[in-house]
Fold Transcriptional regulator.
Amino acid sequence: MQHGPAVRRRKLGAELRALRTGAGLTSGEAARLVGWHQSKVSRIETGASGVRPADVRSLLDAYGVRDPHLRELLLVLAGSGGGQGRDHWWHAYRGVLPPTYRDFISLESQASAMRTLETSVVPGLLQTAEYARAVTRAAVEGLDEERLDTLVEVRLARQDVLRSRPPLALSAVLDEAVLRREVGGPDVMHRQLLRLLEAARLPQVRLQVLPFSAGAHIGVTGPFVIFSFSNTSDLDVVVLDHLTSSLYLERKEDVGAYTEAFDALRNNALSTEESLDYIAGIADGA
């Protein structure tokens, strides 16, 4: 995990392998061009080891890749500070955060867009501090106050992606259960609903509610997140959270299926205007 999450290493390796074959080079020939052992090229292409941005630049030069957008994207996957321009602030919490959570934050920080279905709780990027504290305390047993404070601090720090330049574009479909479940009690929940209304005013945030009246829907199997990256859809990643781990889906077929599912959910949900009225009504006790 030294140079980024495993999912990004595999993505980067696959892209570099395709560029090498497109240049008509074997892995051994590529290695000789940059002065490496052939095994290093193979490890990079399979995602078995991390790769520094400087090494990616060397390979791209050897393969004759001049497209600035493609070069920038691949450098982001290698952990460069480019791309969306968001610092790797989470490295300061390595002793507290499990690897799967660090992977998620890394993807979130470098993505250009995020689509999410939430069926139980408010998306982390839109949570208030007190709501985040109540959710974290319930989700992670045996937390002492110091660790709880740190995890809430991380949750709030993640929200900077919505204020960065450029900001992350967030599209969220919320099952009505998210709005009705009184996490932390009625007062905490009331303030959280007001926070949703405030966040929805941001031009890069799109909220839609899937009311109970919509009945059964494709999202009943559970929440999911789709991360997208600038300039290409080939690097989209689906993330499914489980109790003790996260599953990353990278195959085009899987990403396509979840993209279609999200589109269907948006079509079945209330419009953004109707959704805000719906949230306001619940906040007012209607």
